[in-house]
Amino acid sequence: MITANTKAQDIVRELIERGINQNDLSAVDDLVHPDYRYRTPTESLQGPEQLKTIFTGYREAFPDLEVIIDQQFAEGGKVCTRLTLCGTHLGAFQGEPGTGRRMEVQGVVISRVVDERIMEEWELMDELALVSQLGLT
Question: Do residues 96 and 130 lie in contact, with contact meaning Cβ atoms separated by under 8 Å?
């Protein structure tokens, strides 16, 4: 039996697989709520179009970007995803040109799913590891 928590996990997993790993931005249209909000410790964005901009920026900086879901669980409409991002820095990232260096960083995203769409996400990535691996510190 598919529970609401299982369905929420499937929605988040599909956004990662299609939207990031397959570079299919239509996944954002299909799976993200029009009132979507994205938060990190340093920024807050609103709307599916801004999420597409984030996905596009990462893909331009890391053309071989892959997000691996290491662990995922859900409760009460919220999905916690522990993940690993891997890719080669070939394009501009945070104002710096590509270095050709490979990165592998861990992070956690908490997604709130409402009416079978992702309404809100809180992301925490190991940004120090990222800039260190790219030689940008």
Answer: no
- Could you tell me the two tokens for 41? 């410790």
The answer to whether residue 2 scores a pLDDT higher than 90 is: no
The answer to whether 120 and 78 are in contact (CB under 8 A) is no
Integer Cα distance of 33 and 117 in angstroms? 5
Residue with tokens 């609103």: 46
User: Rounded to two decimals, what is the model's pTM?
Assistant: 0.94
125's tokens: 């990535």
Concatenating the DSSP letter of every residue in 41-64 gives SS-EEESHHHHHHHHHHHHHH-TT
d(Cα 131, Cα 93) in Å, to the nearest integer?
A: 10
Nearest to 25 by CA among 60, 52, 63: 52
For residue 125, which amino acid is it?
Answer: M
Write down the CATH number for the domain with range 4-133. Answer: 3.10.450.50
CA distance 110 to 59: 22
Give the phi and the psi of residue 117 in degrees, each rounded to 5.
-140, 150
CB atoms within 10 A of CB 16: 21
- Summarize pLDDT for 97-122 with one digit per residue, the tens: 999 999 999 999 999 999 999 999 99
